[in-house]
Amino acid sequence: MRMSVVAVAVLALGLTACGSGTDSGTGGGKDGTLVVGATAVPAGEVLTYVRDHLAAGASLKLEIKEFTDYVLPNTALQEGELDANLYQNQPYLDDFNKARGTDLVPVVKPYLPPMGVYSHKVEDVTQLADGATVAVPGDTTNEGRALKLLEAGGVIELKAGAGADASPADVTANPRHLKIRELEAAQLPRSLDDVDAAVINNNFAQDAGLSPAKDAILVESAKDNPYANLLAVRRGDEDDPRVKKLAELLVSPEVRTFIKDKYHGSVLPVTGG
Where in the cell is it found (predicted)? Predict the structure, then answer.
């Protein structure tokens, strides 16, 4: 059964946010610290670079809180426990706002973490056998993104006009009779021994030691890709001077160079955000 953002939120109750700072209270410490939520890779690593190498020069105090799922960073932001977060793309944010009644907005888009298909059994998606099982993220927008990637790989076709919320019901051609298994996104790397292939979000792939550039049997193209990750805030906080400073740093030449040198194509900087 296809999971919406609301359904994923239920699963998220069993997951814990791991604070990298000492202040576990509300966002925006009394000393003016900007509290930013992120998944560990690549968002947490990019923010750590900014905190350790650039923030002081911009007179910015930055605290990073890491999360292990896709729901809690947004609920924590909406509830004021965070000042901003970095981990999601625009289609996911739009779906989250619609499903949860939140009012979160993008500020800047610093990088693209390309989604990939991984397998312990085949070296190319065209080698998937008849009836093979392919695991995909169960949340609405990431599932649609995964299905579009499988379509780009030539193993399925989606109905004309299928958008970011495409589902298995939109598959119009499936010559290999692939079985689509919907799983919580964080579980996908652990599923690789149990399925024939899995479409895995970049941060969870890298957190599991998988390189999209080296290990994926199919990977998204960066050209005209709508899934660049964005810095999000509550509506009305876009002009917070601390947020503006962080936004500028995230698209700075220093951060673009860091991304290129660290990820070697597994994460791609977005020039100008």
Answer: Membrane
Is 239 exposed, middle or buried, given 0-12, 13-18 or 19+ CB atoms closer than 10 A? exposed
Q: Is 257 helix (H, G, I), strand (E, B) or coil?
A: helix
pLDDT tens digits for range 209-227: 999 989 999 999 877 788 9
Which region holds residue 201: left if phi is over 0, alpha if psi is between -120 and 50, else beta?
Answer: beta
- Taking residues 172-195, report their average pLDDT: 97
Distance (Å, whole) CA 134 – CA 197: 5
The tokens describing 80, both together, are: 């004021």
User: Can you list the pairs that 152-158 forms with residues at least 24 positions away whose Cβ atoms lie under 8 Å?
Assistant: 152/218, 152/220, 152/221, 153/117, 153/125, 153/126, 153/218, 154/125, 154/126, 155/125, 155/126, 155/128
d(CA 95, CA 100): 8
Contacts of 13 (CB under 8 A, 6+ apart): none
Question: Using CB atoms within 10 A of its CB, is residue 16 exposed (0-12), middle (13-18) or buried (19+)?
Answer: exposed
Instruction: Give burial (CB, 10 Å; 0-12/13-18/19+) of 131.
Output: exposed
Q: What is the pLDDT of residues 114-142, one digit of tens each?
A: 999 999 999 999 999 999 999 999 988 79
